[in-house]
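Researcher: Please predict.
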Amino acid sequence: MSIDQYNAEGYHDPTAYAALSYVEKEEKKTAQRPLVFICSPFAGDMEGNTERAREYSRFAVSKNYIPIAPHLLFPQFLEETDPAGRELGISFGLVLQSMCREMWVFGDTVSKGMAAEIEKAGERGIPIRYFTDRCVEVGR
């Protein structure tokens, strides 16, 4: 984006220039943050697992990543208890996964949905990192 100190009519406009320059600078900083796919349990204890997924997402932000946590998004409008809705949500999540630089798997339990996500990341060559439920990285 090219920012000019002059407005469309040719008048010097330092306030707009300063504001647009700030916005451009912030966009560049955000663009440097890679996307990371957050993989953690959802089914079962949906309330507790939702809170944990939020914690994992905050952790990713603290590490300068942009978290993609489909299990926080799609249950807002797809019914988890409906098998067709669940499969649709997983397939939507896999589309988002394809845009991620890494996958982070949290916790010591791998659900059926997580297993599908992990398998697909492996097929795509997406690096997979494993963390405890307390966000401590572990080898697998």
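Model: The chain has a mean pLDDT of 89.
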